[in-house]
Amino acid sequence: MNSDRFSSASGGDVVVPVSALNRAIASMLERSFPLAWISGEVSNFTRAASGHWYFSIKDAQAQMRCVMFRGRAQYAEFTPREGDRIEVRALVTMYEPRGEVQLNVEAIRRTGQGRLFEAFLRLKAQLEAEGLFDPEHKRALPTHPRAIGVITSMQAAALRDVLTTLARRAPHVPVIVYPAPVQGAGSAEKLTAMLDAANARAEVDVIVLCRGGGSIEDLWSFNDETLARAIAASAIPVVSGVGHETDFTIADFAADVRAPTPTAAAELVSPQRVLLLRELDQRHAALARGFGRLMERRAQQLDWLARRLVSPGERLAQQRTHLRQLAIRLASAGSRASAQARAQFNVVQMRWQRMRPDAAAQRVQVESLGRRLEAAFARERERETTRVAGLAARLEVLSPQRTFERGYAALLDAQSGAAVRSPASLKPGKRLTVHLAQGSADVALADVQPRLSEGF
């Protein structure tokens, strides 16, 4: 049954059961009020045998009953007590059997924790955007530190855990504690001062920044911006071991390595003495085996050299014999080469004698060829002279000058120099150049009387 049915029935006589009314009110409440955070003081807290939590939250003017079912309550970080200031993330609903409005709680936290977490997220986002947490800025932890620094409170249980772990794993490595409070007013500044002091003294190779678990308020000193920047700027690698495995702080992100617990941080920075001794024994055994093999190879090489070693007198006799053999071979090789060269020279000399030219006969032949060449040149010149004379005579006959001497003339346009071939191109006033047998003249036409061509 919904609100529309109630509104339509309000003017009639429809009877509505209480259960239906409560169901409709509960549905309307769940639709009208979204999931929200509500703050107040705890009162009348009860844990039922089923595991459900029942309590009320109140302020100075009002209160509201709350229920947190077992499936949600088992994941709560703390159990509220009478008078605690808390914030609940809840849905407004109604317990239909009694008609009571209540809050169905899904999550619970202490008052102020939400604001702290939001501040934590804002600072984390800011520093991450600046690149303070980039992996390339992280420094590697030393494999064999000469000294380990621990920054924590002298009264902290985490210090005892760290010192116990270091004494068990690496009793040979000295530990220097830089005491500083790990919570409360001014603790972040003192932690930062101790970190700066450790860097200034440069007496340790790695620093462990640690404390035990606690609420977000207890761990808030490790969410300080100044401390985070000091960790990132530290020249000495820093391992953060703050709280439990589920606790994260800004110092964890700024540190070079984040350990889930202080004990785990101590294990990260300390080489295990037993393993180091075992590795040392293995390396010693390997070195001994290698040295033994080297000695065996050297002894074998010495035996081989001893077999090759001969007495100096015997060695000189061998070299003297070898030298005589070389002298004989050298003499034989010299005489044989000289005989071969002499024989080859004789052969070449005979071939040259056979191939030697007869200079007198060749000279007579050259003189005969010279006379024949001169006669051929004379006949050729005579023929060419005759041919040139004939061509000159023909050219003389065809010369324009001879044509002019027979009474002809050549008319050229005075401007273009083109020959005048048609009477039609002759106009009164036209200037012409006339070429005659004894020269040329420029004339201007006064009158032109064209005639048809009738020949000469």
From TrEMBL:
Return the EC number.
3.1.11.6
Q: What is its main location?
A: cytoplasm
Q: Where is the Exonuclease VII large subunit C-terminal domain?
A: 132-443
UniProt-annotated location(s) = Cytoplasm
Entry's InterPro entries? Exonuc_VII_L, Exonuc_VII_lsu_C, OB-fold_nuc-bd_dom
UniProt domain OB-fold nucleic acid binding: residue ranges: 17-109
Q: Which reaction does it catalyse?
A: Exonucleolytic cleavage in either 5'- to 3'- or 3'- to 5'-direction to yield nucleoside 5'-phosphates
Which EC main class describes this enzyme?
hydrolase
Name any one GO molecular function.
exodeoxyribonuclease VII activity
**Coiled-coil annotated spans:** none
CC per GO annotation: cytoplasm; exodeoxyribonuclease VII complex
Give UniProt keywords alphabetically.
Answer: Cytoplasm, Exonuclease, Hydrolase, Nuclease
Which Pfam families does the UniProt record give?
Exonuc_VII_L (PF02601), tRNA_anti_2 (PF13742)
Q: Single Gene Ontology BP term?
A: DNA catabolic process
Entry function: Bidirectionally degrades single-stranded DNA into large acid-insoluble oligonucleotides, which are then degraded further into small acid-soluble oligonucleotides.
The record's family statement is: Belongs to the XseA family.
Subunit field text: Heterooligomer composed of large and small subunits.
Q: What is the name listed in the Swiss-Prot or TrEMBL entry for this protein?
A: Exodeoxyribonuclease 7 large subunit
Species of provenance: Paraburkholderia pallida
| Name of the coding gene | xseA
